[in-house]
Each structure stands twice: as structure tokens, then as C-alpha cells.
Amino acid sequence: MSPASSVAPLTTQDLRLALPQHQQAAPISWTLQAGECWALLGPNGAGKTTLLQTLAGLQSPAQGQIHLGGELITRYKARARARQIGLVFQQQQDAFPVTLTELAAMSRFAHQGLWGRTTQADQQAVDLALTQLALQPLRQRLLTQLSGGERQRLALACLMIQDPAIWLIDEPCNHLDLRFQVQILHLLQQQTQRALVMSLHDLNLALRFCSHLFLLYPDGRACWGPKEAMLNLSAFEDLYQQPLKAYQVDGHWQFYPLSPS
Question: What does the record list as coiled-coil region(s) (predicted)?
Fold first, then answer.
């Protein structure tokens, strides 16, 4: 599926998140471009979720601005913004009594006219996403009957159906078993016409499936760049406050956590 809208650069200018522990850190000026797949890495409480919500325009920063295609993100109307940016939350709270298919169809709102009529293109988008996320057998199941992993796959399917140019995903592997973690990260890796940012707790999955790394420290420090330029053992140990050992498997760098001394 190709993005419905071309990918306009998403740029932060002198950004500080609205978190007390970040106020003394250097502000973040960073650009997200088409074709980039970023892993947002950091320990619990570093502000990864806050950063994603701020990039999506759902939370105001303490300082700085966010531009989408040169325009302040706050100037975009809801439907236009939804065609450009989609966000998957870490936890899914919308457990109202609708079926999986009904919720999936609602995700096409940004592409529908005033009356919200479902077109053939809308139905094709729903069918494709449910197939790719292995949800077709569950089409008539109520949200309240889904497991955590099924609900997470549905959230990702809804993002595909929404079809924005920029995908922001908070913990795409949340609740997923190993098979679906690999399948979904491979699917996300293939979205080369889009721009993606996903928060991940697994450093090794980030190194395998993402092209760029963004390290966010609890005190607000940040560093970022192409994956190859970010392979720094001491930086990862500082990020997680954990000794690590580096090794290679099938050409991929992996980092193994050592026991505390």
C-alpha cells in the first residue's frame, strides 16, 4: 500500500518536551524524512511516549516548534493532519462494543467525504490490512473478545487503513509473541515510501529492522543518526545503565546484557 499523501518532512526546532527533568537539556532540532525508519530508544520514563505524542500534535512542547512540510503542525485541521500523521498508542483503551471490522472501517475517516460513505477503495484498504495482520478470521469478533496481542495487531491494521504518510508507533511489539514481533517489524521495515518512528525496548530488534536510531536519555539528552553511525557500546550502556557485550549474528550487531558485577 502506498501512502495516500506524499511525505512532507517533519521537523522539530529547538524542541523541549513538557517534562520537568528535560528542562536543562539542550533542545532538539531534528528532521524526519521519507524512507527513514527510526527506532526511538530509551529506558522507562525517558519520555519516548511524550515525544511521539508531541510529534503528532497531541501534546504541546515546553519549548520550540514542530513543522510539517514547512507549516506549523498546529495549523493543520484534523482531517488533513490524519492524512499526514498516524499514531499508535502503547495501550489500546477503545473497548466499546463494536466488531473488529467496524473499528477498522472507521480508520478511513480521513479519506472519506462529508457523508462518510464507504467506497471500494476503503473496503480494499480494510481487507488488505486485515489480511496482512492475520486478522481476517476475527472480523466479526467484538473488541472486548480480543486478546492483548490481537488488539495490538488491530491497532497497527487501523494505522495501515488510515494510510498516513508518517507513522508514529509506541511499542509496536507490545503484547505480541516472538513470531508476530518479527512479522510486524518486517512489515514496517517494508514501508519505504513513508517515514516511521517507533519506540522499542529491544535494542537488538531496533538494530535489525530500523535504519536510524534516536537515543533519548531520562534527563532529556538526545542523540540520533543513521544506525551505522550510532553503533557505540558506551552510548548504549549509558542509555540503559547496563553493561553490555557486542557480537555479530548473520551480519547484524547484537548487544547482550551482562550480569551486574
Answer: none
Q: Domains plus CATH for the chain?
A: 10-96+165-183+192-257 (3.40.50.300)
138-175 pLDDT, tens per residue? 999 999 999 999 999 999 999 999 999 999 999 999 99
The Cα–Cα gap between 155 and 107 comes to 10
